[in-house]
Specification:
Strand content: 5-15%
CATH superfamily of the largest domain: Alpha/Beta hydrolase fold, catalytic domain
Strand order of the largest sheet: 5-4-6-7-8-9-10
Largest sheet: 7 strands, parallel
CATH topology of the largest domain: Rossmann fold
Structural class: alpha/beta
CATH class of the largest domain: Alpha Beta
CATH architecture of the largest domain: 3-Layer(aba) Sandwich
Shape: globular
Order of helices and strands: HHEEEEEHHHEHEHHEHEHE
Radius of gyration: 33 Å
Helix content: 10-25%
Number of helices: 10
Number of strands: 10
């Protein structure tokens, strides 16, 4: 009875340990039983019979997808306890006791001890070992985060301010006036910012539709279906690597060592430089009611998300890890990459190169710069209104409830690296730098200050990153896409004599310590 209780106790310990196991296959017990001891004087006691093997634990189910937040496989069930060996018979005359026979899979029951003087019974055979439980199912780590983890937050856009605010709005302040105090509150605050940007700048991004992806040769096809119709996005993939980079309208020139999966933006809405939109564009075949209600950055960010849907569906064929996706673009496409990364949390790294007004720059601070220097930069009243809502042109930037330091902050706690070019006036890099510094406070509060980087190295052609900027991007790629880097501290300020880079005059809020 005592041995059986011990065996039961061991089984309980084994079951508790099983819940802590990682991915490994199940394996039955394979130990051999111990030999019986020599009898003294009496004959050999009869050997205890072999303990029956503990059964193998059932394997855990397969976990879905790859790392971050998907469901893990289930824990395998515990193996059963092996039955006890029988009691050895009494010895008679002196002679060595024989060994107990081997258990099948479990450990062998121990032999009965030799009877002393032919009277003492042999001991009970030991129980078989508990079978090893199946561990958490294999199949990779969990799927990436959702496109928008705060989609269920009950938030709305704020009204325009009643009076001008020349300071950068507090990114930690909810619309009800309270300030967030925990990291867990950030997804809902992030969605307030999203609502503000949608209401005043680009319109509401549609919810994810039905998507079906196929890979034929090197061509990725993503069929998107809504109640109104169907369109198909295609991407000519190239290169190799387990990470993926979505270049805006072509392969990325800065991200190497990853699978290239370009987003061809005209397959959603056509690029235009003259503030005109086209109702026959593919996007309006699936969302006809959106005509006249969105800017193209809305449709383009939606298209990037649908391409990501497709990548995830055929990730095994592509040979990529969908938790290691980057977006990259320059100039108008730098804005596109920024909106794509900000509006889809499945993007691990955003590379926004020379994005200018409507990208990393603050609408307020760009107006400040032009007012002070009389130098024209891209602002809320002179940008492209096919990209943004036409109604935005008449807005007072100082009355917006948000600004673009908060667009950048929407990426947190994921990674973003931005590149500037101070000699190009139109980019407004003074405003861009200050906006990044303010956004950096959100990354700092979330405990990931080094997930934001910037490099304003100048004296080069537009969208022609010099070696130093290339290295800055590589630093972020190595750490956040390839896992080969341990640091990502990149902070190169713009160097221009008429720039005023002090941010104390535009930040009047305090960065909280988020728990």
């Amino acid at each position: 009875m005592r041995s059986a209780l011990v065996a039961s106790f061991r089984c309980g310990l084994a079951i508790a340990a099983i819940n802590l196991l990682g991915c490994a296959g199940s394996e039955p017990g394979v130990d051999t039983g111990g030999a019986g001891t020599s009898g003294s004087a009496g004959t050999s006691g009869q050997a205890g019979t072999s303990g029956n093997a503990g059964t193998s634990g059932n394997a855990g189910t397969t976990g879905a997808g790859c790392s971050v937040s998907g469901n893990a496989g289930t824990t395998g069930a515990a193996g059963t306890t092996g039955a006890a060996g029988t009691t050895g018979g009494a010895g008679t005359t002196g002679g060595g006791a024989t060994s107990g026979g081997g258990g099948r899979g479990g450990t062998m029951g121990a032999a009965g001890t030799t009877g002393r003087g032919g009277s003492t019974a042999g001991t009970t055979g030991a129980a078989g070992n508990t079978g090893t439980a199946g561990t958490t199912g294999s199949g990779g780590a969990a799927m990436p985060s959702a496109e928008n983890t705060g989609a269920n937050c009950n938030v709305t856009a704020a009204n325009l301010l009643s009076a001008q605010n020349k300071k950068l709005p507090n990114p930690f302040a909810m619309h009800d006036g309270t300030t967030i105090t925990t990291k867990a509150q950030w997804p809902c605050r992030r969605n307030e910012i999203k609502k503000d940007i949608e209401k005043y700048e680009i319109g509401t991004k549609p919810e994810p539709p039905t998507v079906q992806a196929t890979l034929s040769g090197a061509t990725l096809s993503v069929k998107v279906t809504t109640a109104a119709g169907t369109i198909t996005l295609t991407s000519a993939t190239s290169g190799s690597g387990t990470c993926a980079v979505i270049g805006m309208n072509g392969s990325s020139s800065l991200v190497s060592g990853c699978k290239q999966i370009p987003f061809m933006h005209d397959q959603v809405v056509k690029y235009s430089q003259n503030s005109t939109q086209t109702q026959s564009d593919p996007f309006y075949k699936v969302y006809p009611d959106a005509w006249g209600k969105i800017g193209n950055y809305n449709a383009w960010s939606w298209g990037i998300s649908r391409l990501i849907d497709g990548i995830i569906q055929v990730k095994d064929q592509l040979g990529v890890d969908p938790t290691k996706i980057a977006v990259h673009g320059c100039s108008y496409a730098g804005k596109m990459a920024l909106f794509g990364g900000a509006f889809d949390e499945r993007v691990a790294l955003t590379v926004a190169q020379e994005s200018g007004g409507g990208g990393i720059t603050s609408w307020r601070l760009s107006q400040d710069f032009t007012t002070r220097t009389n130098i024209q930069v891209e602002k809320i009243d002179n940008t492209n209104y096919s990209w943004f809502l036409m109604s935005m042109k008449s807005l007072d930037p100082y009355k917006l409830p948000h600004d673009h330091h908060e667009l950048i902050a929407m990426i947190a706690p994921r990674a973003v690296i931005t590149l500037g070019n101070p000699e190009y006036d139109w980019l407004g890099d003074e405003s861009g730098y200050k906006s990044l510094v303010a956004a950096g406070e959100v990354f700092k509060a979330l405990g990931v200050a080094d997930h934001l980087g910037y490099d304003f190295t100048g004296n080069h052609m537009h969208c022609a990153a010099p070696a130093m900027q290339q290295q800055s991007v590589t630093t972020f790629v190595n750490r956040y896409l390839k896992g080969t880097g341990t640091t990502s501290s990149v902070a190169v300020k713009p160097n221009r004599s008429n720039f005023m880079l002090d941010t104390a005059s535009v930040i009047d809020w305090t960065t909280p310590t988020l728990q």
